[in-house]
Amino acid sequence: MAQPVSVAQGSYGMISERTRLRMIERLRQQGIRDERVLAAMYEVPRHLFIDQALATRAYDDVSLPIGQGQTISQPLTVARMTEKLLEGRSTPGKILEIGTGCGYQTAVLLKTGAQVYSVERLSGILDKARLNLRNAKLVHARLVHGDGHQGLPDVAPFDGIIMTAAARQVPPALLPQLATGGRLVLPIGDQEQHLWLYEKTATAIQETRLEAVRFVPLLPGKQ
């Protein structure tokens, strides 16, 4: 892991190192093993990605509202999806994120060394993500206002695709944008949702159902 700092200071006050370390230890106990993911989760100041009124809950293992009916996922979900996305890769490579949200998952991916392209359908939420990432001094992601169902075919293929909203099925445009050897991690379902992992080989797509989750729905178009 990266060297710890004594205190994390953000515009929402002081968040102690101990609080962030407790989150990392909880993630370890919950089964997260990839040290790249744990280091990234430690280094990203989650309190900068939520409203000031909720800052005291920033490192709790809960999802929190970020406005316009959207949420920031609980740390375990972020860590789990990131770990599955990077599993088996020595370097993260080029990643497509569907659903930028507040930018927290984007930030974690950047901290692992990934080259990140992120699509968000809500312009107001995307503006917040840009501000949050600037405040966190993480400005290297390419953020796009668009329909996540379409992905970004102009810059495909991607080594990994991660979706932070629940689809009823895999959007047809996404798997062709995945490189051979790449992974797609996303929630699928309506009332009952599960994470799914799709692995693209030279000859087939391998599917694996993972744990139950709860995400906002993936909606078409952009606003």
Automatic annotation (TrEMBL):
Stored CDD domains: AdoMet_MTases
UniProt cross-references to Pfam families, sorted A to Z: PCMT (PF01135)
Active site: S73
EC numbers for this chain: 2.1.1.77
BP GO terms, sorted: methylation
Catalytic activity, reaction form: [protein]-L-isoaspartate + S-adenosyl-L-methionine = [protein]-L-isoaspartate alpha-methyl ester + S-adenosyl-L-homocysteine
Location of this chain's protein in the cell: Cytoplasm
Primary subcellular site in the record, as a coarse category: cytoplasm
An example molecular function term from Gene Ontology annotations: protein-L-isoaspartate (D-aspartate) O-methyltransferase activity
InterPro entries: PCMT, SAM-dependent_MTases_sf
Enzyme class: transferase
Record flagged with keyword Methyltransferase: yes
Keywords per UniProt: Cytoplasm, Methyltransferase, S-adenosyl-L-methionine, Transferase
Record keyword Methyltransferase present: yes
Functional summary from the UniProt entry: Catalyzes the methyl esterification of L-isoaspartyl residues in peptides and proteins that result from spontaneous decomposition of normal L-aspartyl and L-asparaginyl residues. It plays a role in the repair and/or degradation of damaged proteins.
Family: Belongs to the methyltransferase superfamily. L-isoaspartyl/D-aspartyl protein methyltransferase family.
NCBIfam families linked: pimt, PRK00312.1
Record protein name field: Protein-L-isoaspartate O-methyltransferase
Gene behind the chain: pcm
